[in-house]
Amino acid sequence: MSPNNSSQSQLKSSDALRDVRYEIRGQLANHALDLEKRGYEIISLNIGNPGLYGFRTPETMRLAMIENLAQAEPYCHQKGIFPAREAVVMQQQSRGVMGVSADDVFIGNGVSELIDLSLRALLNPGDEVLVPSPDYPLWSAAVTLNGGKAVHYRCAEDDAFKPDLDHIERHISSKTRAIVVINPNNPSGAVYDRATLQGIVDLAEKHGLVLMSDEIYDQMVYDGAEFIPMAELVENAVCLTYSGLSKIYRACGYRVGWCVFSGDLDRAADYRHGMELLSALRLCANVPGQWAVQTALGGFQSIQQLVQPGGRLHQSRQAILERVESSDYLHVERPMGAMYAFLRLDDRFAGKLDDQAFALDLLENHHVLVAPGSSFNTRYTNHFRITTLPDTDTLNIVFDRIEACLEQHR
Fold it and tell me: What is the dihedral of CA 320, 24, 230, 212, to 10 degrees?
């Protein structure tokens, strides 16, 4: 039969994708590419990708890769090269996380792959995972793709986007397997205090749940905010900590992340074995980038200069706060970490302009690309996220265009 025979049915994508969303690189982003092909210059604020905004990976990391290229040609161990895993162990120990060895560390092609592998190794069909709302949508998508159900717990703006501990506990059921924590948070920029984190740990230990702590922005905090590693607080639960080179070290394209098992490691033995099996099936993570890990974690932490007063990330964040403060149409809960601002449209637009319509108008008529807030699994539709990575001049242009757009709808 001819492959072009019209009697053949249209190929459909998997039913598993029906409830999967990732609008950060979805229809709006594709529309922005179409506009660029037609000659328009689009200011894209939808993705936290430092390299696109002039941030360079530290030179020492680049040199570490180059000097070890000859050793990077074969496959390595499925968990990653030993120097990289040992460097992660030493970082964990410096943060008060003891009892962890290189055998408890998995290197992956970015944190994204490790999220997928760790959920696949844990979940059976119908299992539930507690995920924050707003969340980084990969978490909800990965739970769904691995046969689970993402149950969202509230992080309310009027409480600085902190996790609602009572809301979490009310949603724990016999099917709940894990609690996801994103700290510092994407998209809200919240940085959680010790009492909040301890409360989540207590719930996990009480109900026998796995803690999955996404800490990819761990050193990106502002105005004296304190980052507290979740694993530091855990004793009687299994804790997985995720981090990598993408954000703090501005090396998104290297695709190097890590996942560390800590806490009740005896209880985690079979789970860790399942993770090792899945890691072996994909052979190994990108090897050249792994040679930058030891240098990154052991060397000078240049991120500190960027987030302190006078540093570029601090200045850009401050420019956003000042523009929102002077606006009649926008509000924001002050982001204390990460590289985003989660902006709220004024109540005057309620029922007239939701986040999707606003983002489309802003893109088509003002050539600025943002991520609608509902993309982050919120029930409300009056927020949008921008990255704080552009320089202050670009951000002022962006806010001039946002104000012009909203002025038309006021």
Answer: 170
pTM of the full structure: 0.93
Domains of the chain in sequence order: 19-48+309-407 (3.90.1150.10), 59-298 (3.40.640.10)
From residue 226, alpha-carbon distances to 119, 218, 337 in Å are 28, 9, 9
User: Percentage of residues in the chain with pLDDT exceeding 70?
Assistant: 98
Starting at the earlier edge strand, list the strands of the sheet with 128-133: 105-108, 257-263, 238-244, 210-214, 176-182, 128-133, 149-156, 162-163
* Contact in structure between 188 and 225 (CB atoms under 8 Å): no
**Dihedral sign for Cα atoms in the order 45, 49, 52, 57:** positive
Tens digit of each residue's pLDDT (9 = 90 or more) over 154-166:
999 999 999 999 9
Q: Is the pLDDT of residue 2 over 60?
A: no
What are the tokens at 379?
């029930």
Q: Return the pLDDT at 324.
A: 98
DSSP β-bridge partners for residue 181 = 213
Backbone φ and ψ of 7, nearest 5°: -75, -15
Residue 4 pLDDT exceeds 60: no
Bond prior to 390 in cis (omega within 30° of 0): no
**264 is written with which tokens?**
């009740």
Cα distance between residue 316 and residue 396, in whole Å: 10
